[in-house]
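Slide 14.
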Amino acid sequence: MKVWIRMVVGVLLLFFGVVWSLQGSGAVGGSGMSGQAQWLVIGLFVGVVGAILLVGGVRKLRAGARA
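Slide 15: predicted structure.
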């Protein structure tokens, strides 16, 4: 997977993970997911996967810049 694609997917997953976590915890209302603990867990998992992809992409870019 190209580094930029990995980083874009990571940012999107991180964004959706944070939004779903906030909705699941009840901090953000206005949807059927609000206040449901399962969305808090799903959001945390998706956010962590997104952060891992994003950090991995940044590291790969920095390693390529040094070479």
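Speaker note: Residues 11-19+35-60 form one domain.
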